[in-house]
Design goal:
Blueprint: H1 2-6, H2 14-24, H3 26-41, H4 43-55, H5 61-89, E1 108-111, E2 118-121, H6 124-162, H7 168-171, H8 174-201, H9 206-249, H10 262-317, H11 336-351, H12 357-366
Antiparallel strand pairs: 1-2
Helix pairs in contact: 2-3, 3-5, 3-12, 4-5, 6-8, 6-9, 8-9, 9-10, 9-12
Length: about 375
């Protein structure tokens, strides 16, 4: 009902935000408030960017200065809005009294000086030691991911600029397609590593746990999204001719191609389009396909198991198992089709993954 009513509106009003807060809590309501606030504030740089694109010059200093100024004003405005919401919803300074995570494990029991109750305690020094111990894992994972993305980038540049052989028009898209197909699994591995490291740090409150989890997730998301642009800007454009000269000197058949700074613009535009397509695939198409495959496999397994059970019962007793089952008594005013449809919808809702607002926050930070 909410989605149907919101689809007819340009903006979500305060009553809708209050409904979100009442049903899902302040954290989710904060996200949607921030989303609308961010969307409205993006109108100004978007309009200015369109004007600069058509009537200004490339790499406009004026537009860069305006974006920096807009960013400062926007952040300060959101801070004021955030405090207004905290006061209205009665959650100001709520993190100071946040409840303890059930998964938190203390190394000793101490007495709280304020409440005089016994509570588990975990030394901050030990937590910092665990953070430091997890740094090699983070750095190693970042290096492996960077090498993978660098390989994809090198293949893209080679096929797009230097390769002139058979099926170039098709092969030029091969690295991107392969990486897009592998991206859901790569992101899942990165999320598992981030959660394992954050669990290992043993944070006491949900707020602290979510904060450090988002930090790690953002690192891997940033590498997935921006490494190709960084390689183009700081490696390929300034040092590309030297690398090609070295490869030609050792006998590799690389053609001499002039590298233009406009390639960075083309790469950024391609990133803006491909990133949306990849996000749509990983967030919509891939989960839908996974649920369909899993539910289909479960249905086939259930039918096969039921058939084997019926066959075994028939061989054992000589009669059909279904013939020995009494017909269920139908309740009055009960439509079996409606009941089955309702149960099917309930099962589909149960099979959906649990919503985690931190993932949306991570994507927002990435944007």
């Amino acid at each position: 009902a909410w989605l149907k009513s919101w689809s007819t509106k340009w903006f979500v009003n305060q009553d809708d935000f209050a409904s979100i807060r009442d049903h899902f809590g302040e954290k989710v309501a904060y996200y949607f408030e921030f989303l609308e606030f961010y969307f409205l504030w993006l109108i100004l740089p978007t309009g200015l960017g369109v004007l600069v694109h058509f009537f200004g010059s490339s790499y406009s200093i004026f537009y860069s200065f305006c974006v920096i100024l807009w960013s400062v004003v926007y952040i300060e405005s959101w801070k004021r809005r955030e405090k207004e919401l905290a006061h209205r919803w009665g959650v100001k300074n709520v993190t100071r009294n946040e409840s303890r995570r059930p998964a938190f494990k203390g190394d000793k029991i101490v007495r709280d000086p304020l409440t005089n109750e016994l509570k588990p305690f975990f030394s901050p020094w030990k937590r910092w030691a665990r953070k430091i111990a997890g740094l090699p894992v983070i750095i190693g994972g970042a290096l492996v991911l960077s090498l993978l993305l660098t390989l994809v980038f090198v293949l893209e540049v080679f096929l797009e600029v230097y390769y002139g052989g058979y099926m170039k028009e098709i092969l030029v898209y091969l690295p991107t397609v392969l990486f897009t197909l592998a991206l859901p699994y790569v992101e899942e591995i990165c999320q598992d590593v981030s959660r394992w490291l954050t669990d290992f740090e043993n944070h006491e409150t949900h707020g602290s746990y979510d904060y450090h989890l988002v930090q790690k997730a953002f690192l891997f998301k940033a590498l997935n999204s921006y490494l190709s642009i960084l390689l183009t800007a700081y490696v390929y454009i300034p040092f590309g001719p030297r690398v090609i000269a070295v490869l030609q000197a050792i006998g590799l058949p690389f053609a001499t191609v002039a590298i233009q700074p406009s390639m960075l613009q083309d790469r950024l535009q391609a990133f803006m389009i491909s990133n949306q397509l990849i996000s749509f695939f990983t967030e919509t198409i891939y989960p839908w396909m996974s649920r369909r495959v899993i539910s289909g496999a479960a249905m086939i397994h259930k039918e096969v198991s039921q058939k084997l059970h019926n066959d075994a019962s028939t061989e054992k007793t000589g009669t059909s198992a279904d013939s020995r089952v009494a017909e269920p008594v139908k309740e009055p005013h009960q439509d079996p089709k409606q009941v089955r449809e309702f149960l099917r919808q309930v099962q589909e809702q149960v099979d959906l993954p649990e919503y985690d607002v931190n993932e949306d926050y991570g994507e927002m930070v990435e944007q």
